[in-house]
Amino acid sequence: MARVFAHVDAHRQAFIDRLLAYVARPSISAHGIGIRKTAEFLFDYLQGLGMEARLLEGAGWPFVYGRYGESPHAPTALLYGHYDVQPPDPLDAWNSPPFEPEIRDGRIWGRGVGDNKGQHLAQLLAIESWLAVTGNLPCNVIVLLEGEEEVGSPHISDCVRDCRALLADVDLVITADGPVHESGRPCINFGPRGIASFELRAVHAQRDFHSGNWGGVAPNPIWTLVHLLATMKDSRGAVTIDGFYDNVAPLSDLERRALDALPVDLPAVMEGAGLARLDEPQERPFFDRLAAWPTFTINGFHGGYGGPGTKTVLPREATVKCDMRLVENQGVDEILDKVEAHVRRYAPEVEVVRQGGMEPSRTPLDSPYTRPLQRAFRAAQGEDPLLVPAMGGSLPDYAWTKILGVHSFTTPYANHDEANHAPNENLEVERFIAGIRTGAAVLAYLGEES
Amino acid sequence: MARVFAHVDAHRQAFIDRLLAYVARPSISAHGIGIRKTAEFLFDYLQGLGMEARLLEGAGWPFVYGRYGESPHAPTALLYGHYDVQPPDPLDAWNSPPFEPEIRDGRIWGRGVGDNKGQHLAQLLAIESWLAVTGNLPCNVIVLLEGEEEVGSPHISDCVRDCRALLADVDLVITADGPVHESGRPCINFGPRGIASFELRAVHAQRDFHSGNWGGVAPNPIWTLVHLLATMKDSRGAVTIDGFYDNVAPLSDLERRALDALPVDLPAVMEGAGLARLDEPQERPFFDRLAAWPTFTINGFHGGYGGPGTKTVLPREATVKCDMRLVENQGVDEILDKVEAHVRRYAPEVEVVRQGGMEPSRTPLDSPYTRPLQRAFRAAQGEDPLLVPAMGGSLPDYAWTKILGVHSFTTPYANHDEANHAPNENLEVERFIAGIRTGAAVLAYLGEES
């Protein structure tokens, strides 16, 4: 491994240049720009490494697949990433053009450098370095790069099901994505929350009314939704939909201790966001509420007049957009069924429009692959990674844990302030190099501990 | 009076032409168009009738004042109206240009023809007819025409207070405005509801959040407002703000009977508006809920994402716009104070922005002026007017009942489908002529019964 690290150090500038060139290729899935070209570029790259490469075609943009190694004595790690990026707008908020990446202040600036090109390229360069130094890999590797993550990974479950044969011997999945912990420490994430989205729509009449000539007589869809919502979650923060918490998986002792061990500077978090208080229930620990409990967020409520001053209107319709972040073992369909049953009971005139979602996922902290990953971080970065048993956001990890049925880990390489999805996205140069080293060490220890 | 009616009939076409010419003068207070010119035109007209005319100048557009008669033995009737009109847009929804009035299908079409030019012109032509036939009026008359009714009569209470001397002997106020009862029957209205408007604003943070990375941690201003609103009115339609109903004046027996006697074709009303049900409490009689009870209408609720599809945002702020229609003896300040006290108690982080209002007003059905008004309708239109003890909408009647301290009546001359405030506003020709006759008869019977 020392020789591989040395190779990485020797090729430091060449690897940074490779990343700059990769980021310079626009690949915006939301706008359909540059996706296939980038997929073909990756296909050529994987094939050039000696991998058995394929473009997996389906209903959406292709998944780029590459495989190396057939040893029955080594585990097979699937390295997942995505080659599509978020749209760059607003363009005028960027200090340098998003697809003309440059280095300033020890960081590489450009759209997609952190999310996710710099992170999966680090994995690929780790493979390249192993092959350059030893002509082989310490374990079997499958690379799977998606072109639709930034639009919600709508085809990942189909891909995993359709390509089952190609993924038959996968033992674990590793995703290098997202930022490290806010403290700057590296971390290993064991499970994102799921998400279920829906709209509630109330339409009571064919037209808006004069609030004087109809007030008291015509029902008000905003009041209908207010009263319905008030039956769905109480002011103490508890969701009051029948059975909502039924399937919430309790934390294991190990997870409990890991969650409690996560550092958080609450005053700094609150000041940074301008918060005077946290959400209810305020006595619940920070990371419990953020990751171990489901949420019910109203993303938007719109009905009636919203302009300046007053308008004496009694509106005909109103809409509420909601998402629920789900935790292991809640299910998207299960929860949306319960929402619908609740609405049918309390406000049957309100329409529920299901907008789908993503299942939650959780990998046990005592997975046999936890130790090699920890060792890899220590070896590559000189620091123990935090173990994060549950994450607030959502990722398509369920495709691995629930469809493939294997353990899944997220090992972020990006700085906490990578500004993914925002203008001036960036990746610290040293974190990129550390990512290549970490990726190389992961392969080594997985091979060693098998 | 028969000679006056004959005069009206003989000058029928000339009076219609006078209305067409009057409607052709744009006078849009919201846009400041043509207001002073129209005021001067009215001033000249009143002076030409031999009235003691004035333009009452104040902070806003002038009130046009005219007085005729000084008899201490006759009552003094103040005839209120407004010479400003609503903006005509959307222009392309009109079948003929709004300020080029024309007659089709027995109706005069044009902006302001019903609201309120045709109605106060009918009053003025009644005066003109009396003077033409007898050289005098049966009672003392003060005409007061406002140029700001369509922007909420912001200066009417100042005007009434400042010009107290000019109004010292007013005995009653008559407003010819609004449509007749939905059944087509003429009516006399004894009191509009008041109105109090306010906004509720919740701002919890300096920026919007990602609902996954912050959901459960950052408080959601939409949920804050939903839970606050749910404490302010229950799902059965009762306002649950402390003391909200304290001052609601009960109906007198007379008012109770009059309200119960008002005809309503509920299935037709509901079908016309596309309503599947009425507002809560559904068992309360139609006109009670429309006019004898206060309301709490949410005019608008806006916060977070409202576009197509989903957006996983947890918004930083949300706003609710509300109006409350008040009934006698509730007060604007009293009610807004109670709203503020409630919010301070249940959600002190929510800001209440007061937006003012209009006091409610009620004149007793057994006013000494009820009988002459009823007789006038019978004589002029051959039909008994419905007595409407309370109206759903709001008018500045409180200026008469609460500041001047006199009885106030609204005697609409316009057809129920006059489309005031909307495109294709219209007034039935025969209702305009009947309005002149009714105005003339009102003066006669007021003089007679004094």
Structure description:
Two copies of one chain form a homodimer. The first copy, chain A, is of the alpha/beta class. Chain A folds into two domains: 2-192 and 361-449, Zn peptidases (Aminopeptidase), CATH 3.40.630; 194-255 and 290-358, Alpha-Beta Plaits, CATH 3.30.70.360. Chain A has helices at residues 2-10, 12-23, 35-48, 113-134, 156-162, 211-214, 221-232, 253-261, 266-273, 286-292, 332-346, 370-381, 398-404, 429-449, and strands at 52-56, 63-68, 76-82, 102-104, 107-109, 140-146, 172-175, 187-189, 194-203, 209-210, 297-304, 313-314, 317-326, 351-358, 386-388, 407-410, 426-428. In chain A, the strands form five sheets. Chain A has a six-stranded mixed beta sheet with strand order 1-2-6-3-7-16. Chain A has a four-stranded antiparallel beta sheet with strand order 11-13-9-14. In chain A, a hairpin with a 6-residue loop joins strand 1 (52-56) and strand 2. The first copy, chain A, is globular. The first copy, chain A, starts with a helix and ends with a helix. The model of chain A has no long low-confidence stretch (mean pLDDT 96). At the A-B interface, strand 10, helix 6, helix 7, helix 10 and strand 11 of A face strand 10, helix 6, helix 7, helix 10 and strand 11 of B.
